Amino acid sequence: MAKVELIDVSLNYQTLGGEIAAIENVNLRIEDLEFVSIVGQSGCGKSTLLSLISGLIKPSRGQVLVDGIKVSGTAKKVGYMLQQDYLFEWRTILDNALLGLEIRGEKTAQSVQEVKEMLRTYGLGGFEHHYPPQLSGGMRQRVALIRTLATHPDVLLLDEPFSALDYQNRLSVGEEVVKILKEQKKTVIMVTHDIPEAVSMANRVVVMTPRPGTIKSVHEIEMCDQGLSPLQTREEPQFREYFTAIWKELNAGAE
Ligand code: ADP
Ligand code: MG
């Protein structure tokens, strides 16, 4: 059984100016422990797709299944990390990391202990009682990730997780995040408009058409079996071939 499955999913937004078709007839199967990247032009419906999987919005047509069960509203199994880190400036790092648990009423001595351990493991041990403005962009991103992981989702939805970081940071934070997600054994669906990022992290890259978003193609990234890190993957000769193929698809008809 697929971990996540979309069957003929379409989504129209109702606006004052009429209906906007954001997603049209998307079919996608994602197996347990896959890391799938979704790329596409701005406005093609990438965030909409994640919101559909998270249960925040309901499809206009079709079905979204997680573990074979129809998604109806947000569920504990699915963690959603939004584009901005949304850390609360007035809460300490520890309290920010505990927020998801707090909202779910699952803040217990044991879960607090677990979060403290995760902060330590991921290089934030000394920062529990600091506040977000005292941290670098990469550290903040790790806090947001720990907050999402704290509630033990099986599936993680990441919406342009590195877009607020500059290029150098993006590379190293991406490297760290992939390591964390592999250790934690998650199924990951990551939206990005950065092709190298998409290819270097994922075992499959889904290319979407401009709005209304449909799936244009799916690329199996064979290098991902070799146990390489994202930075090492970028050094592989095959990397360029994937990059070029996906770039051409994204830019077809745009010239
Ligand atoms: P992406 O994440 O790929 O940039 P989105 O999923 O955010 O794209 O949006 C897809 C399309 O739907 C865009 O044209 C956007 O303007 C429109 N859209 C997104 N959210 C809403 C909304 N709440 N109401 C109306 N239109 C929306
Ligand atoms: Mg978006």
Describe the structure.
The protein is α/β, with parallel strands linked by helices. Helix content is 35%, strand content 25%. The protein has nine helices and ten strands. A six-stranded mixed sheet has the order 6-7-8-3-9-10, with helices on both faces. A four-stranded antiparallel sheet has the order 2-1-4-5. The protein is globular and about 50 Å long. The protein starts with a strand and ends with a helix. Adenosine-5'-diphosphate is lined by residues 13, 15, 20, 22, 40, 42-48, 211. Residues 46-47, 159 line the site of magnesium ion.
Give a quick rundown of the structure.
With 255 residues, this protein is an alpha/beta fold. The protein has helices spanning 46-54, 93-97, 99-103, 109-121, 137-149, 167-183, 195-201, 230-235, 237-251, and strands at 4-15, 18-30, 35-39, 61-66, 69-70, 78-81, 155-159, 187-191, 204-208, 215-220.
Count of individual beta strands: 10
Bound molecules: adenosine-5'-diphosphate, magnesium ion
Judged by helices, strands and strand pairing, the structural class is alpha/beta
Order of helix and strand elements from N to C terminus: EEEHEEEHHHHEHEHEEHH
- How large is the count of helical segments? 9
Spatial gap, N to C terminus:
41 Å
- What is the 3D shape? globular
Report the biggest beta sheet as strand number plus sense, adding barrel if it closes.
Answer: 6 strands, mixed
Task: Give the helix level as a range of percent.
Answer: 25-40%
User: What value does the average pLDDT take?
Assistant: 92
Quaternary arrangement of the chains shown? single chain
- Which runs of at least 5 residues are low in confidence (pLDDT < 50)? none
Q: How much of the residues is beta strand, in percent?
A: 15-25%
Order of strands in the sheet with most strands? 6-7-8-3-9-10
- Specify Rg, calculated over alpha carbons: 18 Å
